[in-house]
Amino acid sequence: xxxxxxxxxxxxxxxxxxxxxxxxxxxxxxxxxxxxxxxxxxxxxxxxxxxxxxxxxxxxxxxxxxxxxxxxxxxxxxxxxxxxxxxxxxxxxxxxxxxxxxxxxxxxxxxxxxxxxxxxxxxxxxxxxxxxxxxxxxxxxxxxxxxxxxxxxxxxxxxxxxxxxxxxxxxxxxxxxxxxxxxxxxxxxxxxxxxxxxxxxxxxxxxxxxxxxxxxxxxxxxxxxxxxxxxxxxxxxxxxxxxxxxxxxxxxxxxxxxxxxxxxxxxxxxxxxxxxxxxxxxxxxxxxxxxxxxxxxxxxxxxxxxxxxxxxxxxxx
Length: 317
Hints:
The chain has eight helices and 17 strands. It is globular and about 60 Å long.
């Protein structure tokens, strides 16, 4: 008889989900279809007491409806080591609240499979971990030093700037022209986020799209090109990017092969990488998206692949 697993999902409030595009929704729906028992909690409801991690939240069910697509049971406190799987799926910002939740999740018993590995989430910031692979990333600077930013910009003439811990296309801007204009933009972003920023050589191939490639347990399972609106440089779906069907092109297969051992070793099970032209630009490990867009364009079901691979891990353990 097939075991019916218990799955806890750490994420933003259920009310915030867009069921037409949210990857967590489709993953949870597939889990429910398999008979798994689902529990939802937000990261602020985590507790650590006497070295045991608990969370306050709700068991819930999902429905195929635009309104009232979920039904919650009464709020209850559960111990997370009684669950088979925990999905860490809250959206960034990646701040100290996020970091603290990874510390707490590390205390959950080893019998519970946590995806992605909380230590690896914490240690592999999405815009920094790509520096482990210098041969496949574009020229990039991380700095809060204005002079260093200007020197980098002068070398490459056209650059892209973005916050180090932003998401969804927030704060991304193209920088070109005089040093005075560039300095103003650098200062504005640094002062806004009060952290080092990312300064990256502008890749003209962005006109062809920013490719989101999904890797599950280190293996390529699907991709989608996010095409920016005319005159824009951001391609994220949040900022108006349009999905376009795409397979592995250019150096995509090589990039996936280079990343595979790294991802598997660190327990980064569900990852979305971003590629522009021939270059890796981000490794998204916190709450990667793109499943529904890829499914729609490729007539596939990545959520089924996801849970098939999870089940193999659980049975093996």
